[in-house]
Design brief:
This protein has helices at about 5-15, 55-60, 90-105, and strands at about 20-25, 30-35, 35-40, 45-50, 65, 70, 75, 80-85. By secondary structure, it is an alpha+beta fold. The protein has one domain (about 5-105): Aspartate Aminotransferase, domain 1, CATH 3.90.1150.30. The chain is globular and about 30 Å long. The model has no long low-confidence stretch (mean pLDDT about 90).
Length: about 110
Amino acid sequence: MEQWESLAERVRTLLAGTDAREVSMFGSLAFMVDDRMHVAVRRDGDLLVHVAPARYDELLALPGARPAQMGAGRPMGPRWVEVDGGSVDDETSLATWLQVAREHDPAR
């Protein structure tokens, strides 16, 4: 199993019991909760997280976090943070980033 597949399986496990579905999007596997994209597992093994813009700078200071890019030189803006897959190698850190995405959900 490749690194991204392992990460996707871990996200599935942590989202069990929610209204989550998976969608292939932008070369990633996006996890939609209540029909809103919360996170995506990229084929390179990194995690893309939808965040509240007010927390963007704070979240970028966390280990492995960086501004998300859609491609070289194409920043996605303050609603998205990319997290190095190695920084979410335990369930606590992965669950923390999933919670960040869930807290940002404007429908909550």
